[in-house]
Amino acid sequence: xxxxxxxxxxxxxxxxxxxxxxxxxxxxxxxxxxxxxxxxxxxxxxxxxxxxxxxxxxxxxxxxxxxxxxxxxxxxxxxxxxxxxxxxxxxxxxxxxxxxxxxxxxxxxxxxxxxxxxxxxxxxxxxxxxxxxxxxxxxxxxxxxxxxxxxxxxxxxxxxxxxxxxxxxxxxxxxxxxxxxxxxxxxxxxxxxxxxxxxxxxxxxxxxxxxxxxxxxxxxxxxxxxxxxxxxxxxxxxxxxxxxxxxxxxxxxxxxxxxx
Length: 260
Fold this sequence. Notes:
Elements: E1 5-8, E2 14-18, H1 37-43, H2 48-51, E3 57-61, H3 97-125, E4 128-136, E5 155-158, H4 167-178, E6 189-191, H5 199-208, E7 212-220, H6 233-259
Parallel strand pairs: 2-3, 2-4, 4-7, 5-6
Antiparallel strand pairs: 1-3, 5-7
């Protein structure tokens, strides 16, 4: 069963991943699917592929996390129980074991591919940085809920899995966001409030953390109505410009490291 995704490479040590951007479900799974389009879209990260349109290498998912979630460990990567999926019943209980096994094998294959991409980047450049781009819901009760600003930062930066050697780089990223020059008000970016970084970040840093850093960048869905799906294009573009602004910091950081 195919995991549909886009990989675009360029001559850079930097990657933008948007593994929850996708909405597609394989035809073989559709007869067993219970969760409707709107329910799935609410828990996916639409438009993060747009945010990942940076002068980096790119990995953009077309396949939905409701088919296979690369941000979960193998055994939890297929949502077989409601407690794995925000209380949502995703599949009929008669989902064949053979399809489940195929999905788990696809999870293995995708991480072998990710291994190869990271290893190739290290061989070519000696280091890497991954922007692991996500979005999250802050209005769980209804469309009109007032957001708890203390518990829901505008950007939650998941950094918990990184090697401590990257502390200065993380601080430089946070500083670049706060000093952005793209016309946004002061951006509320805080670390590890809602999310620490998922399995993708943990896997990569566990294996290659001496060579690079994964910044799990979770945007609160201020760029869209998280209940209706309506996008606010100007806000979305301002966040994309914000990420573009931080790329200057990356080049400066590693140029300084080379001079040491």
